[in-house]
Design goal:
The chain has two helices and seven strands, in the order βββββββαα. It is mainly β and about 140 residues long. The chain has one domain. It has a seven-stranded antiparallel sheet with strand order 3-2-5-6-7-1-4. The chain starts with a strand and ends with a helix.
């Protein structure tokens, strides 16, 4: 799996990329997704090519500057030989070979989790993905 093209024309307060190895549903935002950051992608990186990735689950998150929830970028994916992820939205264009996008949606929230009552958790797409992933780890 590798990112063949990454182009960033957006304005980001945070732009992070993480190899995910677990979740912590008592946290939201980046802290709910356990793993190692890959510093090849950051707000300062405008373009890169042919970035090899370890197999597993990855998450790319951009927090818009100025902050507007709808302008935040989210992409979760994992290795899937022969598949291809292509995303062009909110100032990010990314092509990933041998990968498949994974779902991020409120529909996967655990309704019995007490944090679901808190808007900061419920609307956090990192936490939405962590809920989905927790059922598969």
């Amino acid at each position: 799996m590798k990112i063949t093209v990454f182009e960033n024309s957006g304005s980001w307060r945070y732009l992070w990329f993480k190899h995910i190895n677990g979740v912590d549903l008592s946290q939201h935002c980046a802290r709910c997704l356990k793993g190692e950051y890959n510093n090849a992608i950051s707000p300062r990186v405008k373009e890169l090519h042919d970035l090899p990735l370890e197999s597993g689950i990855w998450y790319l998150c951009g927090v818009a500057l100025p902050y507007v929830w709808a302008n935040n970028f989210h992409l979760a994916f994992h290795d899937c030989p022969g598949s291809h992820v292509s995303v062009d939205r909110l100032g990010i264009h990314v092509e990933i070979e041998d990968a498949e996008a994974l779902p991020i949606s409120e529909e996967f929230l655990h309704q019995d989790d007490p944090h679901i009552r808190l808007k900061a958790y419920r609307t956090c797409r990192n936490w939405q993905f962590a809920n989905w992933l927790s059922d598969r780890l």
